Amino acid sequence: MARRVDTRCCIAGGGPAGMMLGFLLARAGLDVVVLEKHGDFLRDFRGDTIHPSTLELFHELGLLDEFLQLPIARTERIGVHIGGEHIRMINLTRLKVHAPFMAMAPQWEFLNFLERKARPYRGFHLMMETEATDLIIENGCVTGVRAMGHDGEIEIAAHLTVACDGRGSILRAAAGMKVKDLGAPLDVLWFRLPHRPRDGEETGGWVDAGGLLVNIYRGSYWQCAHVIPKGGAEAIRAAGLEAWRARVAKLAPMFAGRMDAVASWDDVKLLNVQVDRLERWYRDGLLCIGDAAHAMSPVGGVGVNLAVADAVAAANRLWRPLGNREVSEKDLARVQKRRAWPTWLIQSAQVFAQNNFIAPTLNAKGEVRAPWIMRNLQSIPVVRDIPPKLFAMGWRPEHIGSPDAGH
Predict the structure, then answer these.
(1) pLDDT beyond 90 at 30
(2) Which of 149, 118, 99 minimizes the C-alpha distance to 28?
(3) Does this model's pTM top 0.85?
(4) Which among 281, 394, 283 is positioned nearest to 336, based on CA atoms?
(5) 164, 32 contact by CB (below 8 A)
(6) How far is Cα 280 from Cα 265, in angstroms, rounded to an integer?
(7) In this structure, which CATH number among 3.40.50.300, 3.50.50.60, 1.10.760.10, 3.20.20.80 belongs to the domain 3-48+106-182+274-355?
């Protein structure tokens, strides 16, 4: 017989959205259960790019200084090599925020930090090695979830269930929610290369006919993303590791002498890029946020930050009705209304970049040159600070509005 657990809010998924929401609701004095199917948070090549918008939230929570003590690398400038020409694209140092830089933090460090901050609140319950497998639905209303833990089946009764279980969300499928696929003409091969002192610390990329590589400064190493046409990984592997190493070295000459750091295909991880979103993020008793509501392209590294913003918006609007046990569909609709517009704008920009820059570059045969505005952006004071602000703070940044009820 399944073990029964009762809680005010059950959150399926211990990623950035789930852990941030669990922390904020427990901080507001509510009982909350977070389900995480793995035994730890130690997964590589997840979203690690923490933008100033998220760092500003940590400042509002009084946690910024402590967070910055984690093993992170700071990125203040982003540049790109296009057809052999180096172009400085983004300078974050002019932002008027408490942390005018990106923090490159391994996602397990980010999630462990949130868990440590949430643990002292008596209403916070994190159930590791426990996966949500289905919804409990009574008279058309979601009243909780069925889950499988290491010691058997669990039924979790909740006034609100929040699906934060990623782009392949089991719960949104169980709810029959409609997903709009926006398409993605690319996949990404992730790998690491050693950082050398003469490299500098500028995160950036390399663009040339038929190729695109992003290199993210991580202190002792570069986290690299080789962008390839959708479905192209099998052909690359078939051509052999040495051929792929030579291809990357030709695209990014800085790395030509260190490609042997990728010893085998086991050191290369494939990201199958998806861009989609739900038409409706909720139904009675259930809300989807983060990747469960909108899978993002890696373009811009916004995924973690958008998920965290969803969690903050949800906590701001739901802590009071949850406390009164009166969460309505109107309350859930307010969360979607708040977050749908920035999601649409960011995904539209990602799809535009994919279709009008990335895909043509991957298919290009001749010379690739940067557009005039890209080459001259930093010399035009009126507009040079617009891209950094949009990149760093996003569209409609969130602020902490839920209270701290104490431990």
Answers:
(1) yes
(2) 118
(3) yes
(4) 281
(5) no
(6) 39
(7) 3.50.50.60
